[in-house]
Amino acid sequence: MEIIHSIKELQQKLDRNERAGRTVGLVPTMGFLHEGHLALAKQAKKQNDTVVMSIFVNPAQFGPEEDFESYPRDIDRDAKLAESAGVDYLFIPSVEEMYPTDGGIRILPGAQATALCGASRPGHFDGVLKVVLKLFNIVDPDRSYFGMKDAQQLAIIETFVRDFNLRTNIVRVPTVREEDGLAKSSRNVNLSETERQEAPAIRQALELGAELFAEGKPAGEIEEKVAAYITGNSTGRIDYVSLLSYPELTEYDPSSEEAILACAVHFEKTRLIDNIILK
Ligand code: AMP
User: Most Cβ neighbours (<10 Å): which of 76, 105, 197, 261?
Assistant: First the structure.
């Protein structure tokens, strides 16, 4: 595995004219890797000749009061894990390398970004689209891998690729969980011991919601009961619990094929998200 910090150097290595038909898979991350990220890399390794993983804590997707500074980072550990998952190029640009200039052009997501995390984190998905477009242009990947853990992000990126004819195929990867059901997340290290013990309540609540959904209960009742379960079984404070059509992220319509039950919960130092897809 090669570690690369420079955009130019990575572009030279991946030049399409010199690829000679070899396929490239891209796994964008913010680092502090866990098995969720590694699942994306392993899937990319199965389907491509070359795997590029990026590690970039993207300031553009953090609000002024958010955890950009305290976001966990450990590049040496990440490099070992990335190599073990089959990554060929680990791309770790600095903020100056990624954003040396700002000509003021903005990429704005549509209605999909008005729900869920988009509602509580204004501008978050603008920053996500900005970095994702840059990464697509730098790497020119045949396939790009995103986790269902961030289902709203995935839905918005799929729309972006479809509507703007971006030349990559998006691959959805299922959420990897701890044994007790908590979705793996780099932010889990910012939970206190007690909070870590309580956090599986999020998954349990979503499973309860899935049962109520299967029983045909209305969206409002499901959202209420899921929120009550979380607050009754943890010290977490609900940001949102929401049942929507997926991937449109519009109000749940029983005629739509899939729905998402998603939630975000604040703990003292961190905010966790999770979701379940309902068919
Ligand atoms: P992050 O480093 O949190 O920005 O995540 C980078 C990528 O890994 C995103 O596509 C996430 O959806 C994905 N990811 C994060 N956690 C998990 C998980 N527990 N299971 C599967 N994918 C994940």
Answer: 261
